[in-house]
Amino acid sequence: MKHSITILLAAFLMFSCNSKPEGFTLNGTVRGDLKDGTQVFLKKIGENNQPVEVDTATTTNGEFTFTGVSAIPELHYIFVDQLPGYSAVILENGEIEFSAQKDSLGFAEIKGTLQNDTFSDYMDQSREISLKAQSVQRDMQTASGEAALALQDEMKELQEEYKDFELDYIKNHPNALISALILERAIATKAISAEETKNLYEAMSPEIKNSQPGKRISEGIDRLKQSEEAEKNTSIGSKAPDFSGPTPDGKEIALSDVMGKVTLIDFWAGWCRPCRAENPNVVAVYNKYHEKGLNILGISLDRTEEAWKKAIEEDGLEWNHISNIAYFDDQIAKLYNVDAIPAAFLLDENGIIVAKNLRGPELEQKIAELLN
């Protein structure tokens, strides 16, 4: 009988150790002279990309506590009233320990759960490379000649080292939320290919795939594929894809309708200061070469029809214009893989892309060359 009780007790203890916590407890300590009753805010990023308050606690002897349930690991931020900066923390069920100096919240020590331990490990390794880069940047400010060139090469090596470090971290930590966050950023900056992104994503655990960044990665892979296809179709030497859109007076024109001996496709917007600053140069080039065969088709990424028309009139842009008034959701912009403006594509008489993003004297020189 005693032997049976021992077996049952061992089984109970094993079950207890392996069972997942049903909620989280975040125990925080802020060191320094912190007034009792100081508010501590737990926030996360909302739909408008701004911090949204999730919970509030108050301090006693510099200590505070948050409790709750986290269905999936999710990145949150801790703000302390009247103190500068903030700390990132991953909420997941379990005991989370938070400790920071009041004047340096960004360097808080957070541990106790798998996700936070991994996150802290990543931050420690990341800071090592960042500190090296900061040191090189300081040296570059005073260096010249061969020393400056050597430092530039060193900075490029550090950038490659950091990229390799992050990709290796994702591969080695498929169960970590930080891996999904890194991969999501890589998609946004187009740092890696869609195929490599897909391989890294498929190796991640179901829990991470089901997280918010995991879901965004799944959607981002398709966008990255489309972007790569658009980049391929609009590379120099490729035939420019045809498209059409509404003009300011409500008509519809296509690129093929307005082709000249040389054609400039100009992506711009009334709200874009660099675009408006470049417009006088484009006007001068157009006035000089239009009679010789230069045509321009402006594609506006404005948000409103009023702003679009007003900018055309103010800047004296007398060439053809179209716009879907769709900002960067514009299908023509996506077709040409345009995610920043100004952006320009110069076509020869056969519609072949011969140059991209030329401005100022370089634009005029290339147009003059094509028109001979």
Distance between the termini: 103 Å
* CATH structural architecture of the largest domain: 3-Layer(aba) Sandwich
Largest sheet: 5 strands, mixed
Q: What count of helical segments does DSSP give?
A: 11
Level-1 CATH class name of the largest domain = Alpha Beta
Q: Helical residue percent?
A: 40-55%
On the 0 to 100 scale, the average pLDDT is 90
Beta-strand content: 15-25%
Instruction: Kindly give the count of domains.
Output: 3
Based on secondary structure, the structural category is alpha+beta
Give a count of the beta strands, DSSP E runs of length 2 or more: 15
| Dominant shape | elongated
The run of helices and strands is HEEEEEEEEHHHHHHEEEHEHEHEEH
Instruction: Order the strands across the largest sheet as they lie in space.
Output: 13-12-11-14-15
State the fourth-level CATH superfamily of the largest domain: Glutaredoxin
Index terms:
Immunoglobulin-like, 3 domains, 11 helices, four-stranded mixed sheet, 15 strands, elongated, five-stranded mixed sheet, single chain, 372 residues, Glutaredoxin, alpha+beta
